[in-house]
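Data deposition worksheet. Section B asks for the primary sequence of the deposited chain exactly as it was used as input, without tags or linkers unless they were present during the calculation. Section C holds the resulting structure in token form. Section D is free text for depositor observations; keep each observation to a single sentence. Incomplete worksheets are returned to the depositor.
Section A, Depositor: J.P.
Section B:
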Amino acid sequence: MASSNPIVPNRRKKLQAEVRKHVEAGAVFYTGALLSYYGLAGDYACCVIDHAVQYVDGQVHTNDLENFWSLLERGNPEPM
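Section C:
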């Protein structure tokens, strides 16, 4: 089940602790190229997309996550 818990500021130690707390080890982890995510590859199957280079690389993209945040911001609790 998806949940949202914004982490501000996005610092590596705090961000990685929250990921490890809520995401099962070995899970596929899709993310942008934020440096705070570096160091998780040992525990997760990390798929990184660098938006400075491209937005999609085969099956690797963050469009679903961006859609989730967009719906949440608009107050629509049911994803399309």
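Section D:
Residues 12-22 form the longest helix (11 residues).
The chain has one domain: 12-73.
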